[in-house]
Amino acid sequence: MNILGIETSCDETAAAVVKDGHEVLTNIVHTQIPLHQPYGGVVPELASRAHVEKIKEVISAALSCGQECPQPLHVDAVAVTYGPGLSPALLVGLNAAKGLAMSLGVPLIAINHIEAHLHTPFLYDSGALGDCPLPPDLNARYLGLAISGGHTNWIDIPRYGEYHTIGRTLDDAAGEAFDKASKLLGLGYPGGPKLDKMAKEYIAEHELQIPNSQFLKSAPLIAFPQGKPREGVTALAGLPADLCVSFSGLKTALLRYVQQHHDLDIPQVVTSYQEAIVQSVADRTQNALRHHNYQAMIVGGGVSLNSRLRAVLAEVCAKNNIPLLMAKPKYCGDNGAMIAGLAYYRKNIMGDAAMRVDATPSLEIG
Ligand code: KG4
Ligand code: ZN
């Protein structure tokens, strides 16, 4: 079964065709990063206009199977992100998907963007030999971590397709914390990849030992706070404090540090700041793994590209004797393949009701 997936929730106009939930036949991503760079963040009005301009081209390219084959790819359903995300941006994809599903006479499947990020470790390129991941075990219990520019959620997945948030950030998402620090330090947008690269060079240059969860204790780093919320604060909304993070104190600590030091060693500051984020995520992950007997951990979202996070989470999972499932780098950021892939597991859910689905900017998971 071929599904066309459309994604326009933020600053990527993306479409892909995926066979049977896993085999990616085509995957087209048009990023708007250069458009938003001068503003240091995504401007919703510009994002939706750029989606309008690009959506037809991106979908046509995803439906094309190459020059030698003039017919568009056959699709059995159209899937689309309906939230969370920027309302005007979501509407562009949603309206395109509705029109296309109607004209092709195929079902529409509305997909939660965060749930789709957690499907990315199960995607593989068509024709790839040897490194195809197994499909999800539908009855296994997974721990999910969705970590992106908009979300940092720990998610209990007792059966594939059922999601319960058990921990989350109380304020900024991890990606947002990277982006805001980068802006403050004048390193540009998006911050995550820039901070990651700088920290990697600093670690190599100073021959700091990694992977090593005791890193902060042994390395010449600044001890930034690791975002532990206090028990009983109302923002927890009933979630356990030991499964939640708060990055606002870290951000303030960085600002204060920058104001108080005039001879800043920027790479040292960046490495220390990244380490505080990574260690807080690793600590809460370790706590979450104690809650249930998980068969594997699934990580998805743009921040899962972070090299230090990947190394430290690998160590945490190895210690707990469970596999860590992470996507190939090209499926970590926003893309249509994750939407089409997850939709295969949702094909019986939405029916005609999907045609009435509205953009839902603050759609929750679980
Ligand atoms: O999943 P994504 O593409 O979009 C959202 O759904 O938010 O994630 C984008 C976020 C940005 O905040 C970006 O700075 C961050 O992912 N990011 C990274 C890295 N690459 C992208 N953060 C840390 N390290 C990276 N290598
Ligand atoms: Zn995303």
Short description:
The protein is α/β, with parallel strands linked by helices and 366 residues long.
Provide a descriptive summary of the structure in words.
This protein has 366 residues and is of the alpha/beta class. It is 37% helix and 17% strand. The chain contains 11 helices and 11 strands. The protein has helices spanning 33-36, 44-63, 87-104, 113-117, 174-184, 191-205, 215-218, 248-260, 266-291, 307-319, 337-343; strands at residues 2-7, 12-19, 23-31, 77-83, 108-112, 124-125, 142-147, 152-157, 164-168, 296-300, 324-326. It has a 6-stranded mixed beta sheet with strand order 5-4-1-2-3-6, with helices on both faces. A 5-stranded mixed beta sheet has the order 9-8-7-10-11. A hairpin with a 4-residue loop joins β1 (2-7) and β2 (12-19). α5 (174-184) crosses α6 (191-205). It is globular and about 60 Å long. The two termini are 27 Å apart. The model has no long low-confidence stretch (mean pLDDT 92). The chain binds 5'-O-[(R)-(carboxyoxy)(hydroxy)phosphoryl]adenosine (KG4) and zinc ion. Zinc ion binds at residues 113, 117, 148, 301, 334.
